[in-house]
Amino acid sequence: MDKSTFEDPKVVISGPMYGSLRHDSAHKHVTGTAEYIDDTPEPAGLLHGALGLSDRAHAEILSIDLSEVAAYPGVVWVFTGKDVPGVNDVSSNGSHDEPLLAETLVQFHGQPIFAVIAETREAARRAAWLAKIAYRDLPHWSDIDGALANGSPLVTTPMTLQRGEPETEMPNAPMRLKGQMRIGGQEHFYLEGHIAVAFPGEDDEVTVWSSTQHPSEIQHIVGHVLDIPSNAVTVNVRRMGGGFGGKETQGSQFAALAALAAKKLGRAIKFRPDRDEDMSATGKRHDFLVDYEVGFDADGRIHAVDATYAARCGFSSDLSGPVTDRALFHADSSYFYPHVHLQSKPLKTHTVSNTAFRGFGGPQGMLGAERFIEEIAYALGKDPLDIRKLNFYGQPGSGRTLTPYHQEVEDNIIARVVDELEETAEYRARRNAIIAFNRDSRYIRKGIALTPVKFGISFTMTAFNQAGALVHIYQDGSIHLNHGGTEMGQGLYTKVAQVLADSFQIDISRVKITATTTAKVPNTSATAASSGSDLNGMAAYDAARQIKERLVAFAAEKWDVAPSDVVFLPNRVRVGEFEIPFRDFIKQAYFARVQLSAAGFYKTPKIHWDRKAGRGTPFYYFAYGAACTEVSIDTLTGEYLIDRTDILHDVGRSLNPAIDMGQVEGAFVQGLGWLTTEELWWDDKGRLRTHAPSTYKIPLASDRPKIFNVRLAEWSENIEATIGRSKAVGEPPFMLAISVLEALSMAVASVADYKVCPRLDAPATPERVLMAVERMKRV
């Protein structure tokens, strides 16, 4: 089939940075030819693994009888935690609180207790159901309320942020209010679930193909479980069918089980849980309960904030520490709090351990801040947008630039972004028209909201802000690229390849993008925290710089010109007064014994963080954005439609506008799902009942706004020296969907003539909207 069939003539196919290049695998995605792990040819002798899961939420294991499991036709091996040669633990932070296979205690319904290896996947799964396990049930709680009522321990040390004197300024505020907000969790619901295939090698060696955002962590954990050094473990990742943070730590269990069985049996092993098992046994976005008190004046200016952020973390710590930390980092949203006290409560619950999800706690913190603004607006009878603008961070020198964690906001463009969107979306006129419509409409009510985004970019663990890249130029002028970032559909591989194409001024088709592997670039950080392009792009740039310096020195000596007279032009090199094709130039450099390979490295500058003191500069810069959404609700049923959304988002100087636009649109829709349709529910036995598409509702194509206008702030350029002066785009636009919840809130508030804040919790399902409408009728 002709490749041109899938090419949009308006999309650039070759070129350097800043061009709207097609995603390198786009044509494969739409034709189904992109290979994921389960698509690759199965090797001879491949065996399949399945999990044996607990059917208790919290219990002692009294006995395990696996005789019928082992006797099932096709079963080759059944193993438990006692068969682990190294450490029976897959915790990501060294806390040793997350066993690979539970041995004496289960702490959530669906926790893996044993694994089955069989000739077929069906045989392994059917055999796993035949286990006979005796338990002694223990008290359990699966939600935040239960954890608080039972004095649940914390899974990790909480964090406190404080600035100013909130304890004395809160009582002195002209006006005060208290409230509580519940914020639901979210299932990652990837197109490709968790999967791992392990191949035994010589001696202690093992190779693992894993759907993971963090190959180096898989490498380390497999090494610990097998009691072998990291140099014996190779982890490969070509692409994932979605990651969203859920494959930062949660893939370790499947990779370790596959590797253990592969080394034991000397055969390739594949673990691929089905959707129900995947959703039951792997973590999700954290639920939050925010208790807050806000002091403000008659104009709506905030004086003091005191808030506690309790989170359902699950049975182990996983990433709950940094997730709840980031919730506090973003509890200011875009607003300056003169006096502030914020505290996290990472609560232990008898549920699967929650983990990273796009935004990493930031959305929950930001949503709480927008509730503060909404509460003030309804208390004063004002437009929430006016309260937002009044409380925005100021420019340097204004005295309103210091965050609760004592970092100065030096790159603030939120006012400009919001003002521009307010004008282009015609917010004021539409709001007035909606108020008039609601006055005359009996059953259908409308709402509109314009909300901002300010999101900090960097890992809050300073050490993670580093990356490596390996670049080879071959004799024919083609380039081989490898780096530590992983491709989960977000276009990272394409963007980093653009960096190299730009550096050498060659067509991007001359750059071969290769699978991420721990065998080429070691000690990599997870592709997370929206930092993939920032870190790996700069590492690739550093490698290109090294090679170019050698090439320039070679050309200057060979042709007796000044280094400044050696210039890289599109697919050629100018040396003095003549030009030579890039391919021929490289060939001559090879014969002159110029090293045409380099390992690049980058570490983010300027950042530091003292968690104990609650002070530092955890973020290199901030990304900004704003969204204006209009909705219609049916007050008889609680059902609603999203009529229109306008977005203006800041990605700095975009490396690839087409890919960045896709990220903004996709993030908004995913955020929309979190705040409206996606609801996690556990029953009184601690069983997750929303564990499949039949019971868990992600957004459909029909749920997107009927009118969807998305623009990038083309005038923006990062003040920091990022790659190409670009900004991160993965997580920040997720929070644009907060405008949907705020618009629904206005529509509900109209039932009571906007006299009180509806206090609409998330997710705002039609049931919750209807209940809120009924509350408003009683006001």
UniProtKB/TrEMBL annotation:
Cross-referenced InterPro entries: Ald_Oxase/Xan_DH_a/b, Ald_Oxase/Xan_DH_a/b_sf, Ald_Oxase/xanthine_DH-like, AldOxase/xan_DH_MoCoBD1, AldOxase/xan_DH_MoCoBD2, AldOxase/xan_DH_Mopterin-bd_sf, Xanthine_DH_Mopterin-bd_su
Entry keyword Oxidoreductase: yes
Record keyword Lipid metabolism present: no
Domain Aldehyde oxidase/xanthine dehydrogenase a/b hammerhead: 31-139
GO MF entries: xanthine dehydrogenase activity
Signal peptide region: none
EC assignment: 1.17.1.4
Alphabetical UniProt keywords: Molybdenum, Oxidoreductase
A Pfam family that the UniProt record links to this protein: Ald_Xan_dh_C
Descriptive protein name: Xanthine dehydrogenase molybdopterin binding subunit
Organism for this UniProt entry: Rhizobium lentis
Gene: xdhB
